[in-house]
């Protein structure tokens, strides 16, 4: 399972190039300093920080996620059953196990279990991306829901 986390140094360089193209002078320097402070000294970028920086710079989350996580493997979750049993078909979207979800999103099963239990509280951006893509959502929908006041995405409709 390839669960490459986004390194802070790589993301900072990526963002600083965008800032250099879009801003000049004092506002550029202030924004660069602010982004560096937000990202801090962590080895890997947290999903919430990633979202906040992209929002701050008014960048398209979906486009940047597809660019930054193009090598992230995921599979679509089968939310509909292929059975002749109508009850099973109806309930199948609600009974996906964490192992199936973790595998589809390319997240280690033990990590997803710990996130769901509250033992771990921070997702990484590639994990949010994998979850969104495996559920046929735009990454921005899940980021807005998790880290802002976005509506809960409707899955499988």
Short description:
By secondary structure, the protein is mainly alpha-helical. It has helices at residues 8-22, 25-39, 47-56, 61-68, 86-91, 98-105, 109-117, 125-134, 139-147.
Describe the structure.
- The chain is mostly helical.
- The chain has a domain at 8-58.
- It has nine helices and no strands.
- The chain has helices at 8-22, 25-39, 47-56, 61-68, 86-91, 98-105, 109-117, 125-134, 139-147.
- It starts with 7 loop residues before the first helix and ends in a 10-residue tail after the last helix.
- The mean pLDDT is 89.
Defining traits:
single chain, elongated, 57% helix, mainly alpha, 157 residues
**Coarse morphology:** elongated
Biggest sheet overview: none
| Fraction in beta strands | under 5%
**Which value, in Å, is the CA radius of gyration?**
18 Å
What is the averaged pLDDT score?
Answer: 89
Could you state the order of secondary-structure elements as H and E? HHHHHHHHH
Number of strands: 0
Structural class per helix/strand content? Answer: mainly alpha
Rounded to the nearest angstrom, the distance between the terminal CA atoms is 29 Å
Helix content: 55-70%
Number of H- or I-type helical stretches: 9
**Unreliable residue stretches:** none
């Amino acid at each position: 399972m390839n669960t490459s986390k986004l390194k802070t140094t790589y993301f900072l360089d990526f963002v600083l190039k965008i800032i250099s193209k879009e801003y000049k002078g004092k506002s550029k320097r202030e924004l660069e300093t602010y982004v560096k402070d937000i990202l801090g000294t962590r080895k890997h970028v947290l999903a919430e920080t990633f979202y906040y920086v992209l929002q701050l710079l008014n960048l398209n989350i979906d486009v940047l996620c597809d660019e930054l996580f193009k090598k992230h493997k995921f599979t679509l979750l089968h939310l509909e059953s292929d059975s002749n049993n109508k009850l099973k078909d109806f309930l199948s979207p609600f009974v996906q196990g964490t192992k199936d979800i973790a595998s589809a999103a390319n997240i280690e099963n033990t990590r997803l279990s710990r996130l769901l239990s509250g033992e771990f509280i921070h997702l990484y951006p590639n994990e949010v991306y994998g979850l969104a893509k495996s559920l046929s959502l735009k990454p921005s929908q899940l980021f807005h829901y998790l880290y802002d006041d976005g509506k809960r995405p409707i899955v499988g409709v």
